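[Meeting: bench + compute handoff]

Bench side (C.D.) handed over the final construct sequence. Compute side (W.E.) agreed to return the predicted structure before the next meeting so the bench team could plan truncations. Sequence as handed over:
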Amino acid sequence: MSDLQVRRRKPVYNQGDLNQNTTDDDEIKSRKSTKIDQNFTNLIFVVCAVIFLFGGIILMFPESFIMAYSLKAMDWSFLKLGISSKLHAVVLDAGSTGSRVLTFTFYENPLTKNLMLVEEILEEVKPGLSSFAENPEEGGASIQKLINRALQVVPESHRSKTPVTLKATAGLRLLPEHQSEALILEVKTVLSNSGLNNRGVEIMSELHEGLYGWVTVNYLLDQMSNLRKSYVALDLGGGSTQITFSPKYDETFSGSPTHFLHDVSVVRQRATIYSHSYLGLGLMAARNAVFSQKKQTSDRLESSCLSEKVTWKYNNVEVDVHPENKGFDACMQQVKDVISELNVHQCDEVPTRKIAAFSYFYDRAVDAGILNFGESAVVQVQDFLDAAERACSDSKEPFLCVDLTYISGLLHHGYKLTADAKLGLYKQINGHTTSWALGAAFALLEV
């Protein structure tokens, strides 16, 4: 027999050998199955142990930093284990100077229902929606551009369950009713055709504007677990400014105007919040009020807060404003008169609390060189006072004097913060925008 024939010969097994091989295969499969079952049991045990551990810590230390870190650790653990679900929310902010869309991505803790923010996409268009008062169709087109950006972020499979809303602020509040209603109707059509879950278009209440901004900064600064230690939120928009905080002193509850105190639900907890929005004390509205104090004719104004003539446009009305060359002190007096006319409440608790300021507080501080764009900083009211005085004497930027004088006047004479009082200035916190939009997203997803 040749070598080739030997190599081709098939091996011969008896029935006993075949039965033995079958038994071995069954044992291997059984061992693998047992190992998988054991691993799965171990995973369940680990998850349960983590839940009980964190639950015990939360019950023992309900208002401490330990609870905050425990909740955050639980959120990350559930995310890594793949048992948290992904959610999106789309918020359109129709401000007085521009419109923005913020598209948020969260993971929801299945046990606590806590929402963990993992991504935020921001897009902005100018001018603001209120600028299209005479042409609402163009206003709708500007919002469509923002919706198109949001649709690039939200997967098609998630769109029907993803809430979207547009909330307008002071810009639309100041328009005649028939013009604001026409713009709102146009935007409603855009949102209804977006494929997202349309939660409506509205002029946001002053309460919610302040409340949502306060939620945003305190969530991003990890202060929502103990509201007594949370920050006062100061938001300065174009048409209005808001102050919001969670009071801890009895004097604040008893001595504040009743319409400043609100029993609300914030991130799934009830709280009494001090919040008020001053319509007319936003940066652009205040600038207009200061310029209008010494009106000469319908198209000519004079102001101590200018060093050269400027052309000023507000609410589609354009006028020339001429300087009086009286400097910082005279400008501050005009600012104080405007603040007094709108009766800013001076709450004794505010100077005792940590303060977070954003929006135009931040932007104009950057313009004045108090801090660099993109960085956060703790500054003093005195820094704004010094910057205002410099701007009124030698600034080449025509509106910097009036704006910085107004900001320092609002803080020092309005809210009664001392010159050495500290406040944090934020454009972003941990990469997320400090605006009311994040607070609004929480409200959308809690419904």
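W.E. noted at the follow-up: The chain has three domains: 40-72, 83-204, 209-435. C.D. will use this when planning the next construct.
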